[in-house]
Known about the structure:
Arc Repressor Mutant, subunit A, 2 domains, sigma factor activity, DNA binding, WH-like_DNA-bd_sf
Amino acid sequence: MAATRRGDIVNDQPRRHLEQALDACAEGRPEGIDVILQHEGPQLLGVAYRILGRHDLAEEALQDAMVQVWRKAPQQDRAGGSARGWIYAVLRNRCLTILRDDKRLASLSPEDLTRMQEARQDLQPDDDWKLLAGTGRLGECLDTLDDPSRRAILLAHVAGYSHGEISARQGVPLGTAKSWIRRGLASLRECLS
């Protein structure tokens, strides 16, 4: 039993570091961002790159996300999820905003657009979600979902695909993809509560 407790304490350290870092940001102390980048920087950049397919855009997304984390840290609701999950959600939303920015995409060369699309097609959201979920309850709950529902949820919430894109990628009718997502999210909510 002591080994389990010690393991839990070791596994709990990164979570506490991120919570303390968000507290520092909320109090206006810049070392909070330094701690986040020290513990999660390479993984955050990797997720941004997998979504955007370009290093320059990934770096921009990470920088913008850290500004948002700094500004919105006082609003982060611990009861609504983990500090780590919140930080990654801020980054993901910034990446999706960049993808949707028509002006930016219009200025890209055809080769850059092709590379971005290829990188997005190669995205394996299962790996990204395991990174975000860690070994906690969310990962356990995801494992309880049927494969189509889990995959559809991951494509929507990690890779940023629309329901129509998920339908096409999975080769199923739009209503089926929406049903998988709706049913899977309901199961996740039940499992997590």
